[in-house]
Amino acid sequence: MCSMARKRRSDQLQATIADFEIPNAKSWYVTNFGPAGLETAALYGKNLKRSEQQFESQMIEFAHEDGYFSVKKQDAKIAYPGLVTTPEVFLAAWEHILMYGEDPVETPVGYFFFVDGEFRWDSTIQWVIVD
């Protein structure tokens, strides 16, 4: 994605981000979160395009840095206490070094579910970075 952003291939970047959408989101959220999933699915649908635009902007910002993505599997019940099932959950982060010799700075990108053999971004979770 960062390569697409560096090369200013906005259409390809947007298509890649759209591939992270949860298919049949309403059904998926209800299946995995029970009746409470209806509210989350509505929020997901309502904010999806805006969230994808923010995700694209973040990728463009990362493209100007020397860094890499890290992906770590999470305990689904800790990350999402309201789950009624246990889908695979991963946390993706952007890591970059501000100064040589220091530990990398980690910026959370988001949680991703592994759905039907593909990673799907949960855009309902917003990260607040405090410096």
Characterise this structure:
- The chain is of the alpha+beta class.
- It has one domain (2-121).
- It is built from five helices and four strands; from the N terminus they run H-H-H-H-E-H-E-E-E.
- It has a four-stranded antiparallel β-sheet with strand order 1-2-3-4.
- Strand 3 and strand 4 (118-121) form a beta hairpin.
- It starts with a helix and ends in a 10-residue tail after the last strand.
Key words describing this protein structure:
four-stranded antiparallel sheet, 131 residues, alpha+beta, globular, single chain, 24% strand
List the helices and strands and how they pair.
Layout: H1 2-6, H2 10-18, H3 25-33, H4 37-63, E1 67-74, H5 76-79, E2 89-96, E3 105-115, E4 118-121
Antiparallel strand pairs: 1-2, 2-3, 3-4
Helix pairs in contact: 2-4, 3-4
The rough form would be described as globular
Name the beta content range: 15-25%
Rounded mean pLDDT is 87
Helical amount: 40-55%
In DSSP terms, counting alpha (H) and pi (I) runs of 4 or more, how many helices?
A: 5
Across the major sheet, the strand order is 1-2-3-4
**Structural class computed from helices and strand pairing:** alpha+beta
What pattern of helices and strands is seen along the backbone?
HHHHEHEEE
Note the main sheet: 4 strands, antiparallel
Beta strand count:
4
